[in-house]
């Protein structure tokens, strides 16, 4: 009986994390970047509870949200993680997201190459 209850709680938590990721995605799509970032930051401590594709989606969303707000160092970190997820599991990110990720990451890498890491802050 206790094991069944524990499994129900764990399943409900995973659903909650997925729901929070979906809310973050919707806020991002509505250009409500501060709301998206707040949801993503809150979800970060539970990132390991998400599946690998969801973790890749999180890294992409977090990186692009940071990028749009202007948190360039954080954006570069999260976009590099999203790229690593996609390289380790090709196709984990849809082609259009992968293209946007590569464009933003490329732009940030040029800043680092030309002006140094400090230029991201």
In brief, what are we looking at here?
By secondary structure, this protein is mainly α. It has helices at residues 2-29, 33-44, 52-69, 72-88, 95-115.
Detail the topology: elements first, then pairings.
Layout: H1 2-29, H2 33-44, H3 52-69, H4 72-88, H5 95-115
Order of helices and strands: HHHHH
Arithmetic mean pLDDT: 89
Number of strands: 0
Shape by Cα distribution:
globular
Radius of gyration: 16 Å
- Count of helices? 5
Query: Sheet bearing the most strands, described?
Result: none
Instruction: Give the fraction of residues assigned to helices.
Output: over 70%
Structural class, by secondary structure, is mainly alpha
Which regions are unreliable across 5 or more consecutive residues at pLDDT < 50? 7-13
The rounded distance between the terminal residues' Cα atoms is 53 Å
Beta-strand portion reads: under 5%
């Amino acid at each position: 009986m206790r094991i069944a209850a524990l499994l129900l709680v764990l399943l409900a938590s995973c659903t909650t994390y997925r729901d929070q990721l979906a809310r973050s995605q919707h806020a991002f799509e509505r250009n409500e970047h501060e709301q998206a970032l707040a949801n993503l930051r809150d979800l970060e401590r539970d990132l390991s509870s998400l599946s690998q594709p969801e973790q890749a989606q999180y890294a992409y969303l977090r990186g692009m949200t940071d990028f749009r707000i202007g948190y360039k160092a954080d954006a570069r970190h999260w976009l590099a993680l999203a790229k690593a997820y996609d390289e380790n599991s090709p196709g984990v990110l849809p082609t259009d997201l992968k293209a946007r990720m590569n464009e933003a990451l490329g732009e940030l890498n040029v800043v680092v190459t030309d002006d140094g890491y400090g230029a991201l802050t």
